[in-house]
Amino acid sequence: MKFRTTIRIFLPLAGLILVLVAFKSFDDSKVHSCIKNYFKTGEAPQLVWVYFKDKGDGYVQNYLGAQQNLSKKTLKRRGKSHSRIIDKNDFPVHTGYLQLVKEAGLEIRHSSKWFNAVSGWASAEAIEKLSSLHCVKHIDPVGRFKMNKQIFESESEPVKDILPKSANAFADSALYGTSFTQLNLSNIPAAHDSGFYGQGVTIGMFDTGFDNLAHEVFDSMAILATWDFVNNDTSVANDPGQLGNGSHGNKTLSVIGGYKPGQLIGPAYRANFLLAKTENTV
Questions:
Q1: 21-55+92-141, which class in CATH?
Q2: Residue-wise over 234-245: b if at least 16 C-beta within 10 A, else e?
Q3: Strand 202-207's sheet: what is its strand order?
Q4: What is the pLDDT of residue 161?
Q5: Using one digit for the tens of pLDDT, what is the confidence trace for 103-139?
Q6: Which helix (DSSP H) or strand (DSSP E) does residue 112 occupy?
Q7: Which of 17, 53, 35 is nearest to 123 (CA)?
Q8: Every domain range in the chain assigned CATH 3.30.70.80
């Protein structure tokens, strides 16, 4: 009986000691408290950001590589306002560091040269190994945000009643359709009259899915590239069975670059566009 009582006391204590040892094995200065708190009881791998201390060695090679990866247009634009056209933020994440975090157990999803970090799935064991690496600065959870779907009804005076009237307001309203009111707030019709339609400008759109890009309202724009950061492919459409679907991307794209006279005209309908699906709407 005494032996059984001892066993009953010892086993819970042993389990508690193991949990505390596993928890304390994290480098407290590197691992975010939310991650540590989760792994006190949770076991499933977590999506995290692993930030690095620096860009590693090979400064000259990194500099030359970054210069080659920047377009002439980018270099020209930066030269107008920057004394240093290229800096360490243009250097890629060090390949040696990527290999180290893979070996530590991180399942890499994305790499960011601007953050000097990688995101991916990591277990408690992987977090322990990652936090012990000399090249790792800190480990944070990937942020998650939920949209507030509450709809607010405005009781303010209708915008159309307080807008300044342009000289050609009637003609403009017929050409711009329902988009005239919002564009006239920023005097966009006058900019269009002067020949500015967004040509030569590249605009990046980060949103939910961009579906039905073959619609005529998008014919005047040039879509240079697309990428789905949720599912890691080039399709930004609402593909069956995939995450990140929605209509908000279509709406924002049409507001900025749509063109259908008499119904909708965006301020930059002749701009170039880069489309990225970045929002998980499920």
A1: alpha beta
A2: eebbbbeebebb
A3: 202-207, 272-277, 222-228
A4: 46
A5: 999 999 999 999 999 999 999 999 999 999 999 999 9
A6: strand 107-112
A7: 35
A8: 21-55+92-141
Domain over 175-277 is classified CATH 3.40.50.200: yes
Q: Phi/psi of residue 38, each to 5°?
A: -60, -45
Cα–Cα distance measured from residue 116 to residue 224, given in angstroms and rounded to the nearest whole number: 26
Distance of CA 125 to the CA centre of its chain: 28
> Model confidence over 2-16: pLDDT tens digits?
445 555 555 555 555
Phi, then psi, of 131 in degrees rounded to 5: -70, -20
pLDDT of residue 164: 47
How much is the pTM? 0.66
Phi, psi (deg, nearest 5) at residue 195? 95, 15
Alpha-carbon distance of 240 to 107, in angstroms, equals: 25
Portions of the chain given CATH number 3.40.50.200: 175-277
- Does the CA dihedral 147-276-192-259 come out positive or negative? negative
Note the Cα 192 to chain centre separation in Å.
Answer: 31
pLDDT at residue number 22: 46
Q: Which residue do the tokens 């879509």 mark?
A: 223
Query: How many helical (H) and strand (E) elements, i.e. helices and strands, does the chain have?
Result: 10, 9
For residue 23, give the nearest of 141, 131, 101 by alpha carbon.
131
Spans of the chain below 70 pLDDT: 1-26, 82, 146-172, 282
Distances (CA, A) of 171 to 178, 251, 261, 266: 13, 25, 12, 17
